[in-house]
From TrEMBL:
Domain RNA polymerase sigma-70 region: 13-79
Family affiliation: Belongs to the sigma-70 factor family. ECF subfamily.
A GO BP entry: DNA-templated transcription initiation
One GO MF term: DNA binding
Domain of life: Bacteria
Transmembrane portions of the chain: none
InterPro entries noted in UniProt: RNA_pol_sigma-70-like, RNA_pol_sigma-70_dom, RNA_pol_sigma70_r2, RNA_pol_sigma70_r4_t2, RNA_pol_sigma_r2, RNA_pol_sigma_r3/r4-like, WH-like_DNA-bd_sf
Keywords, ordered alphabetically: Sigma factor, Transcription, Transcription regulation
NCBIfam families the record matches: sigma70-ECF
Location of the RNA polymerase sigma factor 70 region 4 type domain: 108-158
Protein name: RNA polymerase subunit sigma-70
Length: 164
């Protein structure tokens, strides 16, 4: 991979790492699993980046890769992440610690979100990131109408979980 492409990727990943942290927080329950998933998503993005055509924003593409990685890895009940070796150039990216204390007030919401299925989690995540339904639909590979209907059903489901 050429030096410019590598620098471009590291800059984009650094700028968008919070979205990866949020995906990790949504699909993991402890810090060790969070770090493992973060690393695996970063590696998957690194390997796929040469194929990124720019048809969508980097963040939209990164969401798709991150969600697909999280869903495929965490669909297994073992919750073990098998990582793959990565290029030493990738080490230039600096991992920023995720502060769990700042997330205390969201604990109940995350607990409720854990009760949703994988697609519902992804849809809520993107909705909370203020993505429009067109982008949500594009990322998840569903129609815009389907995304809206699913989101309304999820809101009702979350209300029942949070207010039994």
């Amino acid at each position: 991979m050429n030096k410019n492409l590598e620098q471009e990727f590291v800059a984009l990943l650094d700028k968008n790492q919070n979205l990866i942290h949020k995906v990790c927080r949504l699909y993991t329950v402890d810090e060790a699993a969070h770090k493992d998933l973060f690393q695996e998503i970063s590696i998957q993005l690194w390997h796929a980046y040469p194929k990124f055509r720019g048809d969508s924003k980097f963040s939209t593409w990164a969401y798709r890769v991150a969600l697909n990685t999280a869903i495929s890895l965490y669909r297994k009940k073992t919750r073990e992440v098998n990582t793959i070796p990565y290029d030493t150039a990738f080490c230039k990216f600096e991992y920023t610690e995720y502060n769990y204390q700042e997330e205390e007030q969201l604990k109940l919401m995350y607990k409720a979100l854990q009760q949703l299925n994988d697609i519902e989690k992804a849809l809520v995540f993107m909705y909370l990131e203020d993505k429009d339904y067109e982008e949500i639909a594009d990322t998840l590979g569903i129609s815009e109408v389907n995304a809206r209907v699913k989101m309304n059903r999820i809101k009702t489901k979350l209300k029942k979980i949070l207010n039994p």
